[in-house]
Every structure is written in structure tokens, then in C-alpha cells.
Design a protein that fits this description.
By secondary structure, the chain is α+β, with helices and mostly antiparallel strands. It has 19 helices and 29 strands. Helix 6 crosses helix 7. 56% of the residues are buried.
């Protein structure tokens, strides 16, 4: 029996629910462990006149402190551009920036001691929002433009034209497990780093550079994270570097675990955007030309903002053919924390922009927005080339929209909503169907590679490693299912091991939803090598052709004979055959020229669509989701239980982003919403009482992905754009047909949009 395609539980589910799954902070603490706390800037922009740590060193339990001057190697934690310091030197550029670290006997002592620093700031003027940054020419990277056709002419000639500025909020990753790293010095200057990271390879390299070591001297291990959501793609390295620098300085193991507030203040988030668009369209609602200007808050350094904003440019078409389009992207440098990856990686903001334009067109023409959406969908065999020159070959948009429209009873419910609103003055309902098309692959082509390591032991059990990390998304069970089928053993015969840079080198981050696509293929390649060798042994020993040998369920049939997998393994071992192999995979077909923004950056696209219905209280601005229907395309799912969880979880997280999670910086540049008391993530009670999720059936990926599955990690988040537009639908009236609603649609934002009525 095959295990791929089965709805197996997450490999650690029994450990998660019983509290026995070991996260980094649960690992046994080594003797002599010191706990580290970070001394942060309290100013958004200032020159450091003096930093006096006398009071810190004198505090109870303190062993040592560490500043920029103590860094033997490079004072940098910028993953692509070397523009971000581990510890500030002459100036600080955001409130929360690390200036020093302190190590003490307990975490409490370290945190208290950090407050004793005397820091003399000479304040400088901060830039606190993207528009001011644009005005002042403050950018972390050069602005980019992508154009096709003649947008200006098409807009100018169009029968209808609309312009709007929208603000799209950021989002904190709010993983349950905050950032943490523990560094244990090894003999002969080696360092072992346990890190809660999506990117052990980058932790290894940045720790090596900071501590003036070579990569061979540093090992990074991560068994699992308690959530990451992009927040631990680049940002984990800073935490690991600080723990490592302190471990090197003190010669003792050091652990740095950020407290929730510090985590939210110190580490990057989803980019908030200001978007201007100018769209021209015809009487049928078809877009003739569109011009976008995106300005995103990148914070003080480039971090991953280059590829994040590139992805915005690649996704502001979403599901729609934009014949004449011009996209300008500003990557704004602001005196706020450096923003980073978050599920969707810039894609969601691009999609919110185009969906807003479509919604505006529909409301202007007085047509159901679904009809305008479908009017603009990519075609099949025509109108099927994206603005970056990739042909959309696997379009299932109409298929999905047809199914969802029927399953969710969209047209009848549209009428019911209209009726409800006609007879209710204060409560208003809204309904929206929005599609998702999301490109799968890292946009930096070279990152699309993966490695794996498989050992088979003499008793027939299997040790599995690959470069991917587990953050709760179920990657490890999916890859184990692939290896189980390749070797014809049950999943229970496989030990799933921590990501470890000493086992699988040079791995990309587990990101861009590509974890199971890439590591599944790499592990399959490794398992195939071993299976090939075993087949050869069986063929020789039993004198049967290799084609007559089959592996299944822990048994091997060899012509007419059957023996246990473990027995064949014993025979191979006795024949001195290697039972260990590495596997490697690189995503095929992709190529892309960054200088012209053209090529085929994505191996394929993932598709889905959602219908959301909401009710809004127009007196208080509060809203509730009443019902959600989703159809999502996971190809031939490797594990439908895991994929279903990803679709549900992604949707809920997206709904949080667009309705309740609000980041607020005050005029001094201090983040005011740095705890769950003020930063509202969705709770169980926010779930739609009726939540129907269907995975598209008979939907084998047309590309040769692992078992024809499709990546699922990020795309469902963007299904939640339907919630936002359902809210906008609920508050649109004849006197205020195009409410100016920004995201997140908090009660305050809804009230502001309602006040626009008649104004
Ligand atoms: N699911 C859980 N439970 N926790 C997470 O941190 N991260 C998301 C998504 N799903 C995440 C998650 C993000 S941002 C990505 S890119 C993918 O998982 C990464 O894993 P994959 O490539 O194996 O899907
Ligand atoms: N997605 C996610 N993470 C990334 C990407 C991407 O496209 N490129 C670099 N890091
Ligand atoms: Mo996900 S934002 O690519 O880590």
C-alpha cells in the first residue's frame, strides 16, 4: 500500500499535544549555561554619544557584556546585502535595534541588567513612513519598473478611468515560539548552534562570519520550530549571531530567547504598503490599462526586501491578464525594524492592489464583482502571458470558479444578502468571491535546489535527513511518505531527523512554499539510489531480472520469493554494499532575467478561490465572518490532512492580517502594538461557523513535481482577500458606492470608511 496521498497525521502530532515535542528552549541545558538579553535602542534615529555598561556589569548575576567592538569577524547580519549590523556602532536607526548583549546566570537577571545601561543619544530626525521616504529619496534598494504595452495611452483612451490610493497594513508573524538560539562551544573553536530557524545554512554562515570562523567550524541544528511564517527566514540569524558572539566571548554555552514584546519590537514583519493605481477599463469591465506605484516599508536595511518587492510586482496581476501595465516599486528605507518574509512574501500586497481595482470597477459599473473578475481572468491559449513574459500554461481559474460558484451557491446568496440589507438598517451583510494564482519557486533561480541524506541501517530501518525545516507545516511527514514509498517500507520504519548543516550542506531556506516540492524530490533521489543497489543485490543473489523485483509494505518480492526488507538489507550489508546515499534536486525549466524582469521565474502556479460572507455592525464597525467556502488546488496532494490544515490555517492567518492585526508606530517611531493585548490575532471564536474547504480533485500537476503534487504553504493566505471584499461589499451603499476602506478592516477603519459616505 502506498503512503503518499494518505491523510497521515503530522509525525509529531502525538508529541505536540502531549507537550513532549522538544523545541529549542526544551533541549537539556548544558552545565554552565548563560542566558543572554539584548540592550536595545530606545530611539528611532540617533547618534550614540556614549554607551556606558558599568551598571549592567555590576548587576546581580552578570558574567559579561558584548558590544560591536567585541565582534572578531564581520558586524553584519544582512542576508543578501551586507547592510545590517548585529550591534549598532555610531548611530541607531530604529527603536529596538540591538546595541549590546548581556550574559547572566538567569534570563531574568540578564533582562534586568540590560535596563541598567547608560546610553547618551543625540537624536536625529527619523523617517517613519514610506511616503516620507519616497519624498526624501530614502530607499534600501533602487526603485524598479516593469512595463508591458503602453499603460498611459490605454488608460487615457479608455471609456472609464479610476484612481485610488490604498494603504495595506503589515503583519507580525506571531509564531507561538519566539526567536531563540543556544550556542554551545565545541572543542578546537567549533560552535554548535541550536536555532529556531527556517534557514540553518544562513545561520551557519552568518555565525561563522561574525565569529571569524569558517563554515566548517559551525554546525546549526533545528529539529522544529513552533511556527515561523517567514519570520525566521533571515531574522533567526541575528539571534544566533548574538548567542554565538557571547558564547565565544565567555567560553560558555549561551542561550538567547526573546521575550514576546522584544521579539515583536526587534524582529521584522510583513511590509506595509501604500499603493496608487490608475486604471482604464471598458463598458464590460475589462481592464485596458493599469498603472501601479508601490511604496513599501522596508525598515532600515535591505534584508529580503528585494525579492519581497519583486514578488509584489509579479503578483499584482493575480488571476488577471493585464495587457497594458506599468508597475513602479519603491523599496523605502524607514527608521523602523527591517521588514522581512511573511507567508506570501510580497505577493499578498500585490494581489490586494489588483483586487481593489477590480472591486472598484465593478462598483462603478454596478455589476457583480465576480463577473468583472471572470471577465479579466487569464485565458487559455489567449490572453495568457503574464507581465513578466511567463505563459500561464496550467490555468484552472475557470474550473475552480465554476465549482465554487456552484458549491457555495453564490448567486442565490447574493440575492439573499441584498434582501437582508434592504430590511436591516444597522447590520449589513456582504459577500465576495476572490481567486488566487500564486507562482511557485524562489524568484532567485539559484535558490531552487535541495539536498537529502538517507541511511538504511542493518535492521532495515531508515534515517532521513534533508535540508528542509519543520515549522508545523508538515514537511517532514510528507518527505517521509515519499521515502517510505520509494523503499517500500512503512512510515514507522523511518526516523525523521533534525535539519543539520553537517548532514545536508548548502540548503536554501525552507520558504517560497517549495519545501516538499524540492526536499521530496531530493529525498526520493537518495532513496532511489539505495533501492537500486538493493535491487541489484537481490537480482544477483536470487538470479532473477531486476524488473521482477518489487518493494512494498516492508517486503521485497523477488520473482516467486518474498523476503522481508530487513533481510535483503542484511544480504546487501554482507555483500559490502553501501546503504547510505545523498540526493539532490534542482527545479527544472525556470530561468529569469532580473534586469528586464522577464522569463519564467515560476515552475508552475498554485490556484484557489474563496467565497466569504460577513456581517458588519455599521454602528460599531465590528464584523464577523459567517461562512467561508474554499476550493483549493494542491495537485495530487501528498497528504490531504496536512494540506487541508495548511489551507485552513493560511486562510485564517490572512483574515487576521486583513481585519484585526494592526501594527501601530507612534510619532517617536516606537511600536505600540507589541503584545497580544494590543495586537489582535484571530482566535477560535473568530472562525467562520460554517467553513467548507475542498481540495480540487483529479488535479495532477501538469509539471513533473513530486507525485504531481502542488505547493500549499503560502497560497491559501491570499484566499482571505475575500473577507476584506465581503466587508467592503457590506458597507457599500448608493451614497457611498466605493468606500475608502484600508487594510486591516478594523472596526475603526470600517467606521472611517462609513464616515466617507456622502462626504
Ligand atoms: N504552517 C505552519 N504551521 N507554520 C509555519 O510557520 N509557514 C508558512 C507555510 N505554512 C508556516 C506554515 C510559510 S511562510 C511557508 S513559505 C511554508 O509553510 C514553508 O513550508 P513548505 O515549503 O514546506 O510548505
Ligand atoms: N520566497 C520566499 N523566500 C525567498 C524568496 C521567495 O521568492 N526569495 C528569496 N527568499
Ligand atoms: Mo515563507 S514567507 O516563503 O517563509
Amino acid at each position: 500500500m502506498k503512503t503518499v496521498g494518505n491523510a497521515l497525521p503530522h509525525d509529531s502530532a502525538h508529541l505536540h499535544v502531549s507537550g513532549r515535542a522538544a523545541y529549542t528552549d526544551d533541549l537539556p541545558e548544558p552545565r554552565d549555561l548563560l542566558h543572554v538579553a539584548v540592550g536595545m535602542s530606545s530611539k528611532a534615529h540617533a547618534r550614540l554619544r556614549a554607551v556606558d555598561l558599568g551598571g549592567v556589569l555590576a548587576a546581580a548575576g552578570v558574567v559579561d557584556v558584548c558590544l560591536a567592538a567585541d565582534i572578531a569577524g564581520e558586524n553584519n547580519c544582512g542576508p543578501i546585502v551586507h547592510d545590517e549590523k548585529i550591534f549598532a556602532t555610531d548611530t541607531v536607526e530604529y527603536a529596538g535595534q540591538a546595541i549590546f548583549a548581556v550574559a547572566a546566570g538567569s534570563a531574568d537577571q540578564a533582562r534586568k541588567a540590560a535596563l541598567n545601561a547608560y546610553i547618551d543619544y543625540e537624536e536625529l530626525e527619523p523617517i517613519l513612513d514610506p511616503l516620507t521616504a519616497v519624498e526624501k529619496g530614502s530607499f534600501v534598494l533602487p526603485s524598479e519598473t516593469l512595463a508591458r504595452g503602453d499603460a498611459a495611452a490605454a488608460i487615457g483612451d479608455a471609456p472609464h478611468r479610476l484612481q485610488r490610493r490604498i494603504r495595506i497594513g503589515g503583519q507580525d508573524q506571531f509564531y507561538l515560539e519566539g526567536h531563540i538560539a543556544m550556542c554551545i562551544p565545541q572543542e578546537d573553536d567549533g560552535l554548535l548552534v541550536y536555532s529556531s530557524t527556517q534557514h540553518p545554512d544562513e545561520v551557519q554562515h552568518l555565525v561563522a562570519k561574525a565569529t571569524n570562523r569558517a563554515a566548517k567550524d559551525v554546525v546549526c541544528v533545528c529539529r522544529r520550530m513552533g511556527g515561523a511564517f517567514g519570520g525566521k527566514e533571515s531574522q533567526a540569524a541575528t539571534i544566533a549571531c548574538i548567542a554565538a558572539l557571547m558564547a565565544v566571548k565567555t567560553g560558555r554555552p549561551c542561550k538567547l530567547r526573546l521575550d514576546r514584546d522584544d521579539d515583536m519590537i526587534m524582529t521584522g514583519k510583513r511590509h506595509d504598503f501604500v499603493v496608487d493605481y490608475d486604471v482604464g477599463f471598458d463598458d464590460t469591465g475589462r481592464i485596458l490599462g493599469i498603472d501601479f506605484t508601490f511604496a513599501s516599508r522596508c525598515g532600515i536595511s535591505a534584508d529580503l526586501s528585494g525579492p519581497v518587492n519583486d514578488r509584489t510586482m509579479f503578483h499584482c496581476d493575480n488571476a488577471y491578464f493585464l495587457e497594458n501595465v506599468r508597475i513602479v516599486s519603491h523599496r523605502c528605507k524607514t527608521n523602523t525594524v527591517s521588514n522581512t518574509a511573511f507567508r506570501g512574501f510580497g505577493g499578498p500586497q500585490g494581489m490586494v492592489a489588483i483586487e481593489y481595482a477590480i472591486d472598484d470597477i465593478a462598483r462603478t459599473l454596478g455589476v457583480d464583482p465576480l463577473d468583472i473578475r471572470r471577465r479579466n481572468f487569464y485565458g487559455i491559449g489567449e490572453r495568457d502571458v503574464t507581465q513578466y513574459g511567463q505563459t500561464v500554461e496550467d490555468n484552472t481559474l475557470d474550473l475552480i470558479a465554476d465549482k465554487l460558484e456552484a458549491d457555495a451557491d453564490y448567486r442565490a446568496r447574493r440575492a439573499a444578502v441584498r434582501e437582508f440589507n434592504a430590511s436591516n438598517r444597522i447590520l449589513k451583510r456582504g459577500l465576495a468571491l476572490t481567486p488566487v494564482k500564486f507562482g511557485i519557486s524562489f524568484t532567485s533561480t539559484h535558490l531552487n535546489q535541495a539536498g537529502a541524506l538517507v541511511h538504511v541501517y542493518r535492521d532495515g530501518t531508515v534515517h532521513l535527513n534533508h535540508g528542509g525545516t519543520e515549522m508545523g507545516q508538515g514537511l517532514y511527514i510528507k518527505v517521509a511518505q515519499v521515502v517510505a514509498d520509494e523503499l517500500g517500507v512503512p512510515v514507522s520504519a523511518i526516523r525523521i531527523n533534525a535539519a543539520d548543516t553537517s548532514k545536508v550542506p548548502n540548503a536554501s531556506a525552507t520558504a517560497a512554499s517549495s519545501g516538499s516540492d524540492m526536499n521530496g524530490k531530493a529525498a526520493q533521489a537518495a532513496a532511489r539510489k539505495i533501492r537500486g543497489r538493493l535491487t541489484e543485490v537481490a537480482s544477483q543473489r536470487f538470479s532473477v531480472p531486476e524488473t521482477a523485483i518489487d518493494f512494498s509494505d516492508g517486503w521485497v518480492s523477488v520473482g516467486p520469493d518474498t523476503l522481508a526488507f530487513a533481510e535483503l538489507v542484511q544480504l546487501a550489508w554482507a555483500d559490502r554494499v553501501s546503504l547510505s546515499a545523498t540526493g539532490f534536486y534542482k527545479t527544472p525549466k525556470i530561468h529569469y532575467d532580473r534586469s528586464t524582469f522577464s522569463g519564467r521565474p515560476f515552475f508552475y502556479f498554485a490556484y484557489g478561490a474563496a467565497v466569504s460572507e460577513v456581517v458588519v455592525d455599521t454602528l460599531t464597525g465590528e464584523s464577523r465572518i459567517l461562512r467561508v467556502d474554499i476550493v483549493h488546488d494542491c495537485g495530487d496532494s501528498l497528504n490531504p490532512a496536512v494540506d487541508l490544515g495548511q489551507v485552513e490555517g493560511g486562510f485564517v492567518q490572512g483574515a487576521g492580517w486583513l481585519t484585526s492585526e494592526e501594527l501601530f508606530w507612534n510619532d517617536a517611531g516606537e511600536l505600540q502594538t507589541h503584545a497580544p493585548s494590543t495586537y489582535k490575532i484571530p482566535t477560535c471564536s473568530d472562525l467562520a461557523p460554517e467553513f467548507n474547504v475542498t481540495l480540487l480533485e483529479n488535479a495532477a500537476n501538469r509539471e513533473d513535481t513530486i507525485y504531481r503534487s502542488k505547493a500549499v504553504g503560502e497560497p491559501p493566505l491570499m484566499l482571505a482577500i475575500s473577507v476584506f471584499h465581503a466587508i467592503r461589499d457590506a458597507i457599500a451603499t448608493d451614497s457611498n458606492p466605493l468606500p475608502a476602506l484600508d487594510t486591516p478592516a478594523t472596526p475603526e477603519a470600517v467606521l472611517r470608511a462609513l464616515e466617507g459616505a456622502g462626504a
